[in-house]
Amino acid sequence: MSAQSAATATANERVKTLTLDSTQLYLTALNSTTSTLSFPPIPSSFPTSNFIPNTRFLIDSFRHPSTAFSASYFLSHFHPDQYSGLSPSWSKGIIFCSHLTSLLLIQTLKIPPRFVFALPLNDPVLVDGCEVILIDANHCPGSVQLLFKVPTKNGIFERYVHTGDFRYCNPMKLNSYLIGFVGCDAIFLDTTYCDPKCILPSQEESIDYVVSVVDRIGKEFGKRRVLFLIATYVAGKENILVEVARRCKTKICVDGRKMEILRVLGYGDAEVFTEDESESDVHVVGWSVLGETWPYFRPNFVIMEEIMVEKGYEKVVGFVPTGWTYEVKRNKFAVQTKDTFEIHLVPCSEHSNYDELKEYVKFLKPKKVIPTVGMDFEKLESKHADELRKHFDGLIDEMDNKKDLLMGFHRGNCETVEKVERNANEERVMERNKNMFEMKTVESNDMDVSSNDVSYVHKPDSQDSTIPSEEERERIIEETRDSMPKWVTRDQILDLVSSSRWNIVEAVSNFYEHEIEFYEQVSVFRTFESASHASSPNSPISLSNSGPFRSSTDESVNTNLSQVSKSPSLKLTRWSNISPSKRKKNTEKRSNKKVKSNSKLESSGSKQPTITSFFSKLLPDDSKGGKTGRKN
Questions:
Q1: What is the bridge-based pairing of β-strands 72-74 and 57-59?
Q2: 338: number of CA atoms within 13 Å, CB side?
Q3: For 567, how many CA atoms within 13 A lie in the half-sphere containing its CB?
Q4: 19-189 belongs to which homologous superfamily?
Q5: DSSP assignment of 359-416, as one string?
Q6: In Å, how far from its chain's centre is CA 36?
Q7: Contact partners, residue 561, CB within 8 Å, separation at least 6
Q8: What whole-number distance in Å separates Cα of residue 123 and Cα of residue 254?
Q9: Contact assessment for residue 397 and residue 366, using Cβ atoms and an 8 Å cutoff
Q10: I want to staple 236 with a disulfide (CB 3.0 to 4.6 A). Which of 140, 174, 443, 629 is the partner?
Q11: Is the predicted pLDDT of residue 400 greater than 70, yes or no?
Q12: pLDDT band (50, 70, 90) for residue 421
């Protein structure tokens, strides 16, 4: 192609580029006779994760003060925590989004169409002089990532990627527009599962599990005897429903509201979904019908029984597909049962897991990572945001940040450079001291532990705790038991709740942080009882429930745990605040330095990894614009 032909093609391409002025679009929507519109400056307190630097583009931010700071609003996808604040009376500005999301806004939320503007996917658009590109986010129907190319002084552009909520997949690396943002100035990253413990299975594996359970139990009981309930959001999880329908050769029953949304999404085919309950044993229910998932899963068997009786079934099997129910790494799909009810906790999430987040940042190699999910993100330099950013050390463009420091030095900002370096040095010293303290704590605990330290019992300060009534204690113990594996003994639960000042959330959190130690207690006791039984054949003891996920109903487990301490050959490590993985590493280091001549019998038990802790993320204040830690 000649240079002239290439120039002509480029010119034609520029002519085709859609150019939009949000202020004029907004004035037109208002039927205003004025031709200009002015806005106050965006305040420094405005959440950093919700606006693009050097623009007035606000992202998923509709619930903030009544003062309008912009006419340009972007909605990444149709989920309540993103569109919260929108209503049929919306008139604050133009909402830019994908075509599918625009249909949901107009037909479901009844947003006036004149305030909604659909942008195409994979096609650059100029909005207020900035190039904007929407690409697929692999989250829910209509979800997009937003790419911004913002002009600054001297013809230089700043590039920003806002992921919205997304699940990274390898095909994203092949998107030519996204490739153009490698080395971008910043990525606003969905950090829902930014924790090394959050390594979720693939969506395909989770879907296969749901299909297999429906198929197996359905064939075992036959039609009209077992009811399957699948919990979903207003929009999302459609891939699970479609696969169950296709592979189990059954329709999926939904209510009128869900069917309305499915029609908008293009799933109105009568061969897949139906509103007639008699046509299907697989029904879709609201998200909280089967139980509460935050801060830990609490099943609602009462409602399940009501549904079973009302609809005339013999058994009910429920599925809760969300990453927050991912409890056991080696047993990916946990099941909670009671009588004829089952609830399968399926770690099927549309958010990127920890490894996927790191892979995405490694691919884009941005100059900066800005977390968008969690707490305390109204300040970019908050302590919690810094902690999350540390996960991406070595993956971002650190050289560019160093160049900025050198530029500041040459401009005479020696004081600033020295302060940055001093803070970095202080942080390294503090981290080193912290590690040394942890190692000393572990060593001290290992040296001081006595033979009767079978269970950790932290006696709460009597001034800080109020002992509830006997009835209330029983209620707390039972509710705590429902959130733990069946092998946990009553004594262990009692220790947990009493040491946690009868706070259920804190008790469950402590258990999941130290599950290995608790299981070892039960395992060591059974080993001890087994040995006692072998030496005293006239003392019958049942060990049939010896598996880690079997029910420990034998009262001897509860009443005789203390007997383990009487055996000089058995010893358990004290439960400390140091994680099992750190303690193991430190112990291995010490054992390499000195080999003990008199080895002691170690407690046997499951080598199961520590349970994922769900409680490090707190719900933020909506007024500050933070998104909830609770995610699908």
A1: parallel
A2: 14
A3: 22
A4: Ribonuclease Z/Hydroxyacylglutathione hydrolase-like (3.60.15.10)
A5: HHHHHH--S-EEE-SSSS-SSTT-HHHHHHHGGGTTTS-HHHHHHHHHHHHHTT-HHH
A6: 43
A7: 454, 455, 489, 491, 521, 522, 525
A8: 35
A9: yes
A10: 140
A11: no
A12: low
Q: How far apart are CA 557 and CA 48, in angstroms?
A: 53
Closest CA to 479 of 508, 458, 453: 508
Mapped onto helix, strand or coil, the DSSP state of residue 128 is coil
The verdict on whether omega for the bond into residue 53 sits within 30 degrees of 0, i.e. cis, is no
- Report the distance separating Cα 340 and Cα 334, nearest Å: 17
321 touches 265 (CB < 8 A)? no
Compute the distance between CA of residue 148 and CA of residue 131 in angstroms, rounded to an integer: 6
Q: How far apart are CA 96 and CA 118, in angstroms?
A: 6
Q: Is 539 helix (H, G, I), strand (E, B) or coil?
A: coil
Which pair of tokens denotes residue 118? 């659909």
| pLDDT range class, residue 74, cuts 50, 70, 90 | very high
Helix (H, G, I), strand (E, B) or coil at 59: strand
Q: Which amino acid is at 14?
A: R
pLDDT digits (tens, 9 = 90+) for 14-63: 457 899 999 999 999 999 888 788 888 888 888 888 999 999 999 999 98
SS3 at position 473: helix
Given this model, what pLDDT does residue 599 score? Answer: 40
**pLDDT at position 324:** 64
Provide the pairing of β-strand 341-346 with 334-338. Answer: antiparallel
pLDDT reading at 510 higher than 80: no
> Does residue 317 contact residue 215 with C-beta atoms inside 8 Å?
no
Q: Where are the alpha helices (DSSP H) in 457-615?
A: 470-482, 490-499, 504-513, 515-535, 555-559, 580-593
Beta bridge partners of 186: 160
561, two tokens: 């745990």
| Predicted pLDDT at 321 | 87
> What is the model's pTM?
0.61
Return the minimum-mean-pLDDT range out of 280-284, 323-327, 363-367: 323-327
pLDDT digits (tens, 9 = 90+) for 456-506: 333 333 334 467 888 888 888 888 887 777 788 888 888 888 887 888 877
Q: Domain extents for the chain?
A: 19-189, 203-347, 470-504
Looking up tokens 């947990």, which residue turns up? 496
Give CA–CA dist 28/96, Å, rounded: 15
Q: Which residues pair with 121 in a beta bridge?
A: 134
How many Å is the Cα radius of gyration of the chain? 29
| Fold held by 203-347 | Rossmann fold (3.40.50)
Helix ranges restricted to H, 222-351:
238-248, 256-264, 301-311
Query: Who wins on pLDDT, 325 or 233?
Result: 233
- The two three-digit tokens of residue 277, written as one number: 């309950």
